[in-house]
Design a protein that fits this description.
Blueprint lengths: L1 E4 L2 E4 L6 E7 L4 H14 L3 E5 L2 E2 L2 E7 L5 H11 L7 E7 L14 E6 L4 H12 L7 H11 L14 H11 L4 H8 L3 H15 L4 H11 L1
Parallel strand pairs: 2-5, 3-4, 3-6, 6-7, 7-8
Antiparallel strand pairs: 1-2
Length: 218
């Protein structure tokens, strides 16, 4: 599976999908040693790919010391098109930087700062590979506060169709329009039309709000 988009190459050999793919500087001895440590301590298969490339893996670790927030964001966006979508984590991020904003993307389950020690990095990667999250308390607190709202005590009266409920569940799972369209065997235009109707019926403005609404009502 290959796809070139704005300089990012997506190439996947389905017979050799790594547990962890580090997108960084291949010439870095430090990164090579880091992946050796991952393989030794976590018993996983790792790959190191250049910053201009993107290769599928169970988890993709994006090096923020090499990738700008825009480049990392594009890599995250491209990876959402894969089935199944890989888990994403950010490495060597700087606190309060624009890279932190990428945590809003679905499937971005962790962030490691440039001050994170090897022991915590190993623990965090192991946690993310289990499908769990690894977030600093400050960001977790921010996400909780931003998602809070007065509970809806009224009975759900959105009157969604069976297909709309189905699409809404896919949104909760973090799937893209293209991925949903592929699973339901319809066009992306059809998915967009359904989403427009869903947003209107439940009174939300975007996918994040729709996902929050669905978690309360599904």
């Amino acid at each position: 599976m290959e796809k070139t988009h704005d300089g990012l190459l997506q190439a996947t050999n389905e017979e050799d999908v790594a547990d962890l793919v580090l997108v960084s500087d291949v010439a870095s001895l430090q990164n090579s040693l880091l992946l050796e440590k991952f393989e030794e301590q976590l018993s996983i298969h790792c790959k190191l790919v250049e910053s201009g490339q993107l290769e599928c893996g169970t988890c993709i670790l994006l090096d923020c010391a090499v990738l700008t927030a825009e480049q990392a964001g594009q890599a995250i966006k491209d990876s959402q098109e894969w089935l199944p979508s890989p888990t994403i984590a950010l490495l060597n991020a700087t606190a309060f930087s624009s890279h932190e904003g990428l945590m809003q993307w679905p499937r971005v389950n962790g962030i490691f700062y440039n001050s994170t020690g090897h022991a915590k990095l190993l623990e965090g990667v192991a946690t993310i590979l289990k499908g769990e999250y690894w977030l600093p308390r400050r960001l977790l607190h921010s996400f909780v506060e931003n998602s809070r709202r007065i509970p809806n005590t009224q009975t759900c009266s959105a009157n969604l169709t069976r297909r709309e409920w189905q699409i809404l569940q896919h949104i909760v799972d973090g799937k893209t329009n293209a991925a949903i369209a592929g699973e339901l065997f319809v066009s992306e235009h059809t998915i967009k039309s359904h989403l427009y109707n869903i947003f209107k019926k439940v009174g939300v403005k975007n996918r994040v709000e729709a996902s929050n609404w669905a978690r309360e009502n599904l």
